Amino acid sequence: KKAEIRTTLNPLHAAIRNNSSPAVTFIRSRVERMSERWKQAAVRMRQSNNQTDSTQMKVLLYPGALAGSAGQRFEALVERGGPLGELVQWADLSASLTILGHNLTFSTSQQQLHSLIGAAPGRGSCPIQRPLTFDLIYTDYHGLAHLQGAMGLAFLHYQCRFRILDSFGTEPAFNLGSYARSHGYKTLWGSWDLQPLQYMTMFPHTPDNSFLGFVSEEAVKDVKEEELESDSNRKNRIAVVYGKQDYMWKGKSEYVEVISEELETHATVYQPPGLTSNLPSFIRNHGLLTQEHFLRLLRGAKVFVGLGFPYEGPAPIEAIALGCVFLQPRFDPPHSSENNDFYKGKPTTRQISSQHPYAEKLIGKPHVWTVDVSNKTEVREAVRAILRTEVKPFTPREFTCEGMLERVRDYIAHQDFCSKSLPTWPPECALRVHLGPLGQSCESVCQRSSLVCEPALFHYLNTPAALARLKIGCSSTRQEVNHLFPAYSPWGQQCGLQQDPLLFSCAGSDLSQRRLCPCRAHLPGQVALSPDCL
Ligand code: UDP
Fold it and tell me: Is the CB of 289 under 6 A from ligand 1?
């Protein structure tokens, strides 16, 4: 059966109706608040000609972070300023799959997971594995462990159907267990031996993973210039500070004070009943707001102020979409799993140059100002400059409903990790081979040419013939399990080819290697997809 675009979210409402935990309540109210936009995007998608046919998939959504004992801890935090970014993503993924016409089951119960996919009790102690009835299972790192428990040996057989929501990403060197153990990439997470593209991130982090994203607010379209004018006049001299919990404000009072000299400064920090607030007295705290009220507050504000934590969340993208300027701390030296408790144990070598590198690097001025917050003069001058500029609302296409729908649609139509044959999406004509300079990752090699590294194209250049075509002139060529390969080392003119396809990696660099990189172009505002190249 073909997946037909729906213009209703009713099947999703039905799938989450019977769950009233705080997390699912947040998801439900987000889906309801945005349902009109989803429907309009569905109508436009139906009308457009660039349809990609897909069969209707039977999909299980299992946010493991909401299940079991970890789930209880997470749920307890939802109404107390805990992380909501994951919930934003689950809500928008569920809505996307519903609009795209797939058949959804949503569960946050470990017990129910067993009845949905587990082995049936057989005779004596010998359980009988039933065939898996789901074509796709979206889960997270917590859920992977639950699935392994429920499926036993069948886990290995079916893992190609899994998709892992993994906000910060998993680089190949951390994903391949044997390699991680022997090369010092062993971390708390990681080592599941999946295909790196099965991990789906919140922002386009390492291109080794699939960028799933979420949907932000959208800049108002189709309004007359004068109305837009008056909209920007409606912006008051208000700053909203980003940070739902008290501890995020620690050591930041001087920075916030400089801002409050120029702007009326608001906050949405969770306030435990009975306890007095530690926030500076000049802050107008609203307490944790519902998403609707939080967005309304942003709509009337001029500046959204990052304190340095939380990292890489959705809120700055929403603020920018509502016409705010995002002011945030620069990290020098950058934060990483080497020097920072939050990133420690995360399966990534990324260097985080500010609270929100996507906002810093892919959006930038006039929407985003990244400053040294210990330098009061720099902060003050930034705030004054921001107050002098008129900034229009902005939403990158990849964070609109349509952008997310076309991305998820294409992933479902083209990403097949169960097939034994080599990937054919994107097609070979998209490939732009680059031989990088010493010490650079393919991610940055491609980026410097305004392209993106595309791991699904590595196999085209991992052959002696490809090396010959590039006239690299290898004196010797070896095959090795090495996340930097294919690569060329000028010392002894040695060429190296990759032996394990799971280790093809856009991330990773070494001062002795020039990496051979599969780059491709991308659609404007949509890094995950390449333009047609027939
Ligand atoms: N949010 C909210 N109430 C508030 C502050 C934020 O509902 O008082 C929402 C916000 O709209 C965003 C989500 O919380 O979509 C996640 O925000 P954040 O960027 O803080 O990421 P997190 O660290 O929670 O994952």
Answer: yes
